[in-house]
Specification:
The complex is a heterodimer of chains A (581) and B (164).
Chain A lengths: L2 E6 L2 E6 L4 H7 L23 E4 L6 E2 L10 E3 L3 H16 L15 H8 L16 E4 L3 E4 L8 H8 L7 E3 L6 E3 L16 H5 L5 E3 L3 H8 L5 E6 L3 H4 L13 H11 L3 E4 H22 L5 E2 L4 H10 L13 H17 L6 E7 L3 H5 L16 E4 H11 L21 H4 L6 H15 L17 E8 L2 E9 L1 H12 L7 E5 L16 H4 L4 H14 L10 H11 L5 H7 L10
Parallel strand pairs in A: 1-5, 11-12, 11-14, 13-18, 14-15, 17-18
Antiparallel strand pairs in A: 1-2, 3-4, 3-5, 6-7, 7-10, 8-9, 16-17
Helix pairs in contact in A: 9-11, 9-15
Chain B lengths: L13 H14 L6 H12 L4 H11 L3 H10 L11 E6 L2 H5 L2 H12 L12 E6 L11 E3 L2 E3 L6 H7 L3
Parallel strand pairs in B: 1-2
Antiparallel strand pairs in B: 1-3, 3-4
Helix pairs in contact in B: 1-2, 1-3, 2-3, 3-4
The chains are: A alpha/beta (581), B alpha+beta (164).
């Protein structure tokens, strides 16, 4: 690698030739504050918080974009720089709606953090504070431009990672604001509800719609039997909200917290993920043998499903008819669980905790209802909302036992189900089961390494007892579009494709804890978070969905066999094309 | 000034669409194609309604939001067609100090539209302009080719009545 030598604050640094000053400073253990910058997504030098002095340069330079050069001398901490940064932040604060005492992002707000660090006077230019400007409220998210700093991270991620670009800067000057075209509400545009915009927003301008009050109300209602299920990726990220390092698996504490909150049943949506594999694996084998529509494309990610319906309706027949694990979980609670426990399904209230905002959309997909016309899932909350409930309830998370276990009736899951939360996980889980069904003998090696990792598009070919199965995995809907285009143009052929809406899969979902730019820009949080899931899988003896004793019991005593009529009624769904405009 | 869309039905012709398609085809492989395409589209249609912006977005492989962002950034692009009677109010320095701001305000009230807009029946469009060079007549408003000078807000209804 070609390098150059430069001096930062008098210290000599050797940095890659194509590095920016920001990156080079990091090599010298010097942190330069940023606000609008997001590595690989948004490098526009707009906010001017990262300004530094470069010897010989006419003006201060934006470190996030300015390339290093041989012999360059950079100063990141001069009186001039500190003053410039402070003024910039104070100007951002001048019309910011500063309800910081109760703002959902308080203590996790990058603007607040910067203001504190630079000792800003938030009233210095304060002539006219924006009034609440809530411009978008739907069942999934809330956009409030009175807290927007116009950093454009949201619109950049919507375009660069998700290929949607449904929001962007409109107008100019004082009138500039982020909104969809023609200032339409998000409901009227092809927004897939992935929530990536929320995870990158540095302030409280974008947030999920908080549904925790519904959960509190259900828990307080003696007539309701309230059950809860958690998605694979929640246990791998919840710890971040309580100060644990990224990639810490807190499954036991999470289960203990749910029990302490008073849920009547604490279950694992991972069990439903194993069920998904049984149904989806069967569907794949049927399509392979009967000449059905191929490639079969996974349907676990509701953001991806909505993307397909808006942008690639020609692939709707390729989608697996399997409901997502969340919806299967709900359907099983109101049928199997209700029957075994002798509870009227009407009295069961199903709550799920998801790494996802699109799940809030998914529970309202009208045709999902299956048991007595009841919704499969009554309310779903994100990892962030769940953490807020724990904090509000006075549960001391770090003091909870770390070995609490799910209620066994629907709380045993395979390692295959755990890895659902990372890109390639569903593919690997399915391959483990499908390979054994086809070959009739146990796999020698359970790890399908080709489909692991955070690369946007992954491909592999496997030989299953003479049947060649070509697979592809994409995460981030922008990558999905690239993959689907190559299939459409006949450049690539596959039998089985996994697509997740969020880059890296659910571990980087729109409902996950928000990590600031200062972490995101220097850590691959997708890879770090996924490690928690793969290490859990590796430590297990039960690593294949079809060996899960709960799943065997479910089929033996209730569903019959995978793909049965009853399974279809409860666990499968259909899709509809949606307009793009 | 923020651009506001008013509700005038779109009635583009097949011929206009063909012309726009040819323009898109000509530019689509060039980097930075959006600006010239928008300019030519405005030549063809006289303005850039949603229907036209969608055709451009589809043709250039952009999202509607990206197209709209550029349209609303530049003053040269209009979201509204021009009316049968184009009303312009000069907001140049001389007219402004002579009260053309109040003239504009009265026009907005009377017509029920903001500057940059068009009445629902498509009859009047209203724009604020820079100096029109008739400072001696300040304040000035112009309807198509008719210039009205040294006016007061109360003249506005009388002038508009001539075109009703």
């Amino acid at each position: 690698m070609d390098t150059v030598k430069l001096k930062i604050n008098g210290v000599e640094v050797e940095a890659p030739k194509d590095a920016t000053i920001l990156e080079a400073a990091r090599l010298a253990n010097i942190e330069i504050p940023t606000l609008c910058y997001l590595k690989d997504i948004n490098a526009i030098g707009a906010c001017r918080v990262c300004v530094v002095e470069v010897k010989g340069a006419r003006a201060t330079c934006a470190a996030c974009m300015y390339p290093v050069a041989e012999g360059m001398e950079v100063f990141t901490n001069t009186p001039k720089i500190r003053k410039a940064r402070k003024s910039t932040i104070e100007l951002l604060l001048s019309n910011h709606r500063k309800d910081c005492l109760s703002c959902v992002r308080s203590q996790n707000c990058e603007l607040q953090q910067l203001s504190k660090e630079y000792g800003c006077d938030e009233h210095k230019y304060s002539e006219e504070t924006k009034v609440p400007q809530i411009v978008d409220v739907n069942e999934v998210l809330i956009r409030d431009n009175s807290k927007c700093v116009l950093c454009r991270r949201c619109s950049a991620v919507c375009k660069a990672n998700q290929g949607c670009a449904v929001i962007g800067p409109n107008e100019r000057g004082y009138d500039s604001h982020i909104a969809p075209a023609f200032d339409l509400p998000l409901e009227k545009v092809a927004c897939i509800r992935c929530g990536q915009c929320i995870t990158v927003c540095p302030t409280g301008a974008l947030r999920e719609k908080d549904d925790t009050e519904k959960v509190w109300a259900a828990l307080a209602d003696p007539k309701k039997h309230v059950v809860v299920g958690t998605a694979p990726a929640v246990r791998a990220q919840l710890g971040e909200e309580f100060g644990y390092p990224i990639g810490t698996n807190v499954e036991g504490k999470m289960v203990a917290a749910l029990r302490a909150l008073g849920f009547d049943g604490v279950f694992d949506v991972d069990t439903a993920a194993d069920l998904t594999i049984m149904e989806e694996g069967t569907e794949l084998l049927q399509r392979l043998s009967s000449g059905g529509t191929l490639p079969l494309i996974t349907s676990c990610s509701p953001g991806w499903i909505k993307y397909c319906e808006h942008y690639y309706p020609e692939f709707i027949d390729n989608l697996s008819t399997c409901k997502s694990p969340q919806q299967m979980f709900g359907a099983m609670m109101k049928s199997y669980y209700a029957e075994k426990k002798g509870i009227n399904p009407e009295d069961i209230y199903v709550v799920t905790v998801m790494p996802c905002t699109a799940k809030k959309f998914e529970i309202h997909r009208d045709h999902e209802a299956s048991v007595n016309g009841l919704p499969d899932v009554d309310v779903t909350i994100t990892t962030r909302e769940f953490a807020r409930m724990i904090k509000k309830s006075g549960i001391m998370f770090d003091k909870l036992p770390k070995d609490a276990t799910f209620d066994p009736m629907f709380g045993v899951a395979s390692g295959a189900a755990h890895i659902f939360g990372a890109t390639g996980g569903v593919m690997e889980a399915a391959l483990r089961t499908v390979a054994e069904i086809v070959t009739g003998k146990p796999l020698e090696k359970l790890d399908f390494n080709d489909v692991r990792g955070t690369k946007g598009i992954k491909e592999a070919t496997y030989d299953l007892a003479g049947t060649k199965v070509r697979v592809a995995v994409a995460s981030g809907t922008k990558n999905a579009a690239i993959l689907l285009d190559s299939i459409k143009e006949g450049k690539a052929q596959y039998e089985f494709v996994e697509i997740m809406a969020c880059p890296g899969g659910c571990v980087n979902g729109g409902g996950q804890p928000q990590q600031p730019g200062s972490v995101r820009n220097f850590t691959d949080i997708r890879a770090e978070r996924a490690k928690a899931l793969y290490s859990e899988d590796e430590a297990m003896t039960l690593r294949k969905s079809h060996e899960n004793p709960v799943i065997k019991e479910v089929y033996d005593t209730f569903l019959g066999k995978p793909g049965s009529h009853k399974a279809h009624e409860l666990l499968h769904t259909k899709y509809t094309a949606r307009p793009k405009y | 000034m923020a651009k506001r869309k008013t509700e005038v039905p779109f009635n583009g012709t097949k011929e206009q669409e063909e012309r726009l398609k040819a323009v898109i085809e000509e530019h689509k492989h060039v980097e930075g194609a959006l600006m010239p395409v928008l300019q030519e589209a405005q030549e063809i249609y006289g303005y850039l309604p949603m229907e036209v912006q969608i055709m451009i977005a589809e043709g250039l492989g952009l999202s509607l939001s990206e197209v709209y962002g550029v349209v609303t950034f530049y003053g040269q692009f209009s979201l509204n067609p021009k009316g049968k009677y184009k009303v312009n109010v000069c907001l140049g320095t001389a007219c402004y100090v002579k009260g053309s701001g109040e003239i504009l305000e009265r026009l907005q009230q009377t017509l029920g539209i903001e500057a940059g807009g068009i009445t629902k029946d498509g009859k009047f469009s209203l724009d604020a302009t820079r100096c029109v060079g008739a400072c001696g007549l300040a304040p000035v408003m112009i309807v198509n080719d008719d210039v009205y000078g040294r006016i007061v807000p109360d003249d506005v209804p009388k002038i508009l009545a001539k075109y009703a």
